[in-house]
Amino acid sequence: MQKPTLLILAAGMASRYGGSLKQIQKFGPSGETIMDYSLFDAIRAGFGKVVFIIRKEFAEEFKAIFEPKLKGKVDVEYVYQELTDIPKGFSVPEGRTKPWGTAHAMLCARHKINEPFIVINADDFYGKDAFEKAHGFLDKQVSPGKYAIIGYELIKTLSDHGTVSRGVCTVDAHNHLTGITERTKIYPENGKIIYENADGSKHEVPTDSKVSMNFWCFHPSVFEISEQQFSEFLRLHGGEAKSEFFIPLVADEFIRTGQGSVDLVPTSSQWFGVTYQEDAPFVTNSIQGLVSKGEYPSNLWAK
Prior knowledge:
This protein is α/β, with parallel strands linked by helices. The chain contains seven helices and 13 strands.
């Protein structure tokens, strides 16, 4: 089998994090970023190529950080998410500066990927088990009619410093994804996990609920599907200043129209990320704990 590819969405800037480039903030004991751990886990799981989706204005800084680490370990490609990378017959609305969303970012990599691949966020720590499960799926099960999402236990994805938004997954009897319901205000309260609706009403979410952390496993056929859907999206919403074309929209349409199924592949990994600046010490301490347990070396890229 051709080794699968890791596609990293690293073009975003996080408003809740003060606008800084948190994708390259150092958290590990030898100055590693969160992305370094995803790269390390993917390489040891058997991925053969990484494609970074970045902004052109950050390209030189970004390459200077990651190219020396990855040289000789994995093939590396770069893709720039450009607003103008849209199908013929459409144009960018005047004044629009907001990117078109995660599915558009993925679509920008269509000329660089011809093999099964995964998509992840740059600023999320996903864990070794998740990459091993994803590689196993891409090796044995992925096809034009079968994709997958890595499902995290909700309780392992919360923040101590504020509410979080999570896509809560529902599945059928065959563990095929049937839907992702976005809950925008989730938090622990009195030993339970609660989400609030816009009207302030509170509802309990089962602690063992599986949620999406934007870790997807795809066959390259997804690009043709996404391109068709993006054209329809632009026809309906292309004139809106802040409309976004998201990967879950692609997966939902794929399922709804009977083109195939999306397996939910559960992982035991603990997710963590820097949703808020106050999360940063927790991320640093969590990584140090994993290093102390021997799950990662103290210097990921030591010769």
